[in-house]
Design brief:
The structure holds two protein chains of two kinds. Chain A is mainly β. Chain A is 6% helix and 38% strand. Chain B is built from one helix and two strands, in the order ββα. Classes of the chains: A mainly beta, B alpha+beta. β3 of chain A pairs antiparallel with β1 of chain B, so a sheet runs across the interface.
């Protein structure tokens, strides 16, 4: 039985970014060996991704039949800081009516109150691909209201609860799955002690 | 076996690549061959199949000889 440990650091990548990169392993493997299986030994992944990012930064509000897209600045927020951000009119350009976002710390939900709308309906649309519905406690659907609406679910400011480590060297591309159970800006460190249950076939 | 491999990280909820904002990651992986036990049985099986095939060929040959005679 032959085995070789390959050490990978994205700093030494040959192309790509730290999120998605190509790495040359030729100087760490032996020629003429038919490796058939692969297993993750350990990993250290920085929890430096943002809560609000390209996948969740577009809030669509429909006023008088017209969709207005609010772009939330990418970054990490608490329930209070996100409400503060959305209560700043500078961050809601193009809207006709006035909005007040309120965080209820006891229930963990957000309420949105619209005013100056002459009782006209407003539609909160969470049907676009990059909606923040799951973060601010709504389902991915449309909500019509003309006064106050409260999120149906709890807000979730730790949305990413599992990360797939993927590689084209693995059959079906998923090498391992880890849970980021630490605070932002720390490293998610994992040492695998169950090789026999977590090994994968190498893709040919 | 490829010499250059691709590594990326997917958020299981959004199924999109996670943006680590330029901070580097490190990981170690182990590549290994099938174990010797499997190799032993695989060789044994191949040997058995080849022997069977030779036996069948001999039988066919005998049958053929009989028919010619």
């Amino acid at each position: 039985m032959f085995n070789d440990i390959i050490f990978i650091n994205s700093y030494n990548r040959i192309s790509g970014t730290t999120n998605n990169f190509q790495f040359d392993i030729s100087n760490q493997i032996r020629n003429n060996i038919n490796y058939e299986n692969i297993v993750l030994v350990n990993c250290s992944i920085p929890k430096t991704y943002y809560l609000i990012n390209e996948t969740s930064n577009e809030l669509i509000i429909n006023e008088q039949g017209i969709d207005k897209t609010i772009y939330i600045q990418n970054g990490n927020y608490s329930i209070l800081s996100l409400c503060n951000y959305l209560n700043n009119p500078i961050n809601l350009p193009g809207l006709i009516y006035s909005y007040n976002f309120t965080a209820n710390i006891t229930t963990g939900k957000i309420s949105i109150t619209v005013s100056n709308n002459n009782s006209n309906n407003v539609i909160l649309k969470f049907t676009n691909e990059n909606n923040p519905a799951l973060i601010i406690g709504f389902d991915e659907m449309e909500y019509t209201f003309n006064n106050t609406i409260t999120s149906t679910n709890l807000c979730n400011f730790e949305l990413t609860n599992s990360i797939n480590i993927c590689s084209n060297i693995v059959e079906n591309e998923i090498l391992f799955n880890i849970t980021p159970n630490i605070l932002a800006y720390n490293y998610i460190n994992y040492q695998n002690n169950q090789f026999e249950h977590t090994n994968k076939k190498i893709s040919k | 076996m490829r010499n250059v491999i691709n590594i990326y990280f997917i958020d299981n909820i959004t199924q999109k690549i996670i943006d680590l904002n330029g901070v580097n990651v490190s990981l170690s992986i182990c590549l290994y061959t099938n174990d010797i036990k499997n190799l032993y049985y695989k060789t044994k099986l191949e040997d058995y199949l080849v022997q069977n095939y030779i036996k069948k060929l001999e039988l066919d040959q005998n049958e053929l000889k009989k028919n010619i005679n």
